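Hi L., both proteins are below.
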Amino acid sequence: MPLRMHSPKISLNISELPWLWATIWLFGLVFTLEILTPPDYVIGYLYILPILFAKPQLNRRATLQITIVAVVLTLLNIWIPGYEQIHPAMVADRLITSFALAVTGVLSDRNRHIQQTLAQQQAKLQIQSKLASLREDFASTLAHDLKTPILGAIETLKAFDREQFGQIQPTQKNVLNTIVRSQQNSLQLVETLLDVYRNDIEGLQLNLTPIDLAKLAESTTTDLLDLAASRRVHLSLNYGDSDFRTFLWVNGDAFQLQRVFTNLLTNAINHSPRGAKVEIILGTQGSQQVVKIIDIGAGIQPDEMPHLFDRFYQGESERQASGSGLGLYLSRQIIEAHNGTIWAENRVPQGAVFGFRLSAINHIVSG
């Protein structure tokens, strides 16, 4: 009875046909060598070549089916050409070879699966990166476009306040001032958003000069007295262990560092209970100038601590109930651009401490 071999049906795409024929040619070559070689020599190991060759080009099912064909052909060599007696060593060699081919096929398939997964993840990351870039471009463009009408509204309201369009009543004047302050806050938010995106893309450009942090702290405290008074918060400025005003010289950008003072002080004022005190403590520790802003508010939740200075972060605690999530992030950008450190911690028994450190410099005060 003639021997009939039922090979499994291999499914593949039209584009994979050339690779299939190349694989079949390799199989035929190895099978021919198997038949022409004495049975003491196992040539079936060479089926690993067409299996590895087919793996990157053919689909998963076709690769597994090719592995089965290789195993079947290796075992078939026990009987074909059949001119010698079958002995246990021959069978053992063919079984070991078949096992090696099966392991190669399985590992090859697993490697293909890992590579496909990695490729898919990489494609997803690229898409997410493009979407994030588009979102940031959109937000930056929107913020830039919003700046012009807000400036126009502020100037118009100021013209009304100067009575350029007719006389206004004192009560109307108070309303106009309130609207102007609201528009100015909106403008500040838009400018902060633009600065954040610009700094992320281009980096923060600093105009470095010798700066006295004590002077900046005093100036910012004066600017925020109205906000503190509206919330009935008392601002206290002290110089650590010194009873007298001291100088805290650093090499920095005065405009940017004042923004840090403003952001941290505003954050402390807004999260302090009425009648509370916010302390600004200035001092020198070794080769660094240290600024601490202390409040007695609700404090910071432990799970929020690592994210306080992240962009747009707003926690769920009472302390982070309001705000854009940009002020602390911008402050971090500015301090890190100065090669400094910014941090936050809870105060015992109540409240929070926000602070930063910058390298001190020696500066001679003239006059």
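That was the first. Here is the second:
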Amino acid sequence: MILKKTVLALSAMAALSNVAFADDAADMKELKQQVAEMQENQQAMIDETSNSQVGFTTVDSDFSHNGMGAAASKVYISKSPLSIGGYGDMYFASSDKKGADNIADVYHFVPYIGYKFTDNIILNTEIEFEHGGANPELDDAEGYAIVEFMYLDFLMYDAFNVQVGHLLTPMGLINLRHEPTLYNTVQKPKTEKYIIPATWTTNGAIAYGDIAETGLSYNAGLIQALDLNNGDLGQPGQIKEGRQGSVSKTIYNKGAFVGRLDYRGINGLLLGGSLYYGDAAQKDVSDTAALIYDVHATYEIAGFKAKALYGATSITNAKNLAAKNGAPLNTLNPNGYAASASAGYYVNLEYDVLSTLSTTYKLPLFVQYDYVNPTKNVVDKNGDTVKNYDTSKNGKITTHSTNTRETTTTVGLNFFPHEQVVLKMDYAMTKLDVDSSKDYNTFTMGMGFIF
């Protein structure tokens, strides 16, 4: 505002000075033209100066570049070469699970920093502080700070563009769109935690674009393979722990293919699927491969939204992984075993009860059913299916089941006082297939935002 007043004052002074020397109608006409030109130049200078301010561009909640969230897409519509955005969320959870404490967690604070070298060469980055960030004063601190993604995007044609660097793997509904305003539960669905698994970042190159005017879009590329040669094999977190993208100096001896195809030709409808295929271990284990795929759909109309996803994993020659997974690597699994198959699905329905009113507020109520089976089939080092296994501690032998099937039904609500701010509350009822006496319920409240 100060800049604008100053420029206007200078323009007026210059005009008055020239008017003093105008002695005929022709001079006056010329001076009027000069004043008009000066006003145009002054407005252009104000616009240019304003656009150069950091953070000038606001989030367009309806804009998504290549399926990403609105805040992550901000750099693509930024009026300034430099773009800063981000998201954050925190929650409180209270569970009746045996031995569980109430938990309060600053779950994420994530700045996005983007830069346009040109209109066709764009840098996009996400820096994630999770669980409050790293705390060197606590030996058991779970917080950390990582570069979640960092890539260069070469924009060429509607049908063909290329991202190179540290990337979000284009699978599932949440992995590309993991900002808290984009899913209504406080915690992500377990299917997209243990099967996909979100958030999954990797290193490589991915081409993407729209296929003519068919309503189809695609992603296809070569990325860093998973490394499932770890002590969590056979546990629910097997695939999740095989991600390497967020770890420094990761092993990149082997690669994998990732592909995705989506259809958006009908207003409000998304139908699609994605696939990963590649080696299951980076070294020390041979002749293994992992296939992960999902099919997904969303539909939105007049305040109603529906989402559904099915995902599955199959590991070829999982017995070779099991042979590497015994003692001393995993004392809970001294004989070695590994999950050769896993699967899960969820369905989510929501309705905004304020959608028929003339208000900018939103109040969606929702219900979600989430089934997950991370250890659908478990094998030992001989390739034989394992249903139970024994562990020994202090001379006492304990028998464990490999069955980790569970279902979680969640009901809740969100309140959006602003399209970029959400308050969440839900109640999740989890039932365990192996032992109903261990069923538990969790009440959770949370808040989230994007900017």
